[in-house]
Amino acid sequence: MRVIIIVVCVFLSQVMLGQTSNIDSVEFCSKKFKVPDDCSTQSKYQVSCDGSFMFWIYMNEQMLGYLPDQFINGMTREMKDFKKEPIVIYLLGKQAKGVKLTYKVEDKLAYQLVSYGVINGQPVLVQLSLYHQEPRHNDDLPQYARKIMSLEK
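RESULT FIELD:
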């Protein structure tokens, strides 16, 4: 639990330090991506668009061994009724571990894709929240997210 609190604090500090309305690009594992005009960001580690939100946190190798499970378990403790299933997710074309969480928000289904692995030499955890459509194929992901994450190679 303490690790989850530390991760959240690190993420929030990244967000607070990076708060500016002039951010037009984000960086993911040493690759730079333009933020779409219809999206917003408060740091170089997140993108928010209508009906979706994506953020990522960097870790070290040791943290990669336990942090993703603690992060996912912490999320599911907050959900009353949810379904958790393992899925294959690719980050920048490299296979990573992942889970899909399905749960209800105001009587509508919502989805969380959480993936993690070592990408371009950097251990990373990525969370994509979707509120409109179940992610089954790449076309179901927001266009900005497809630059980083895919469900099929």
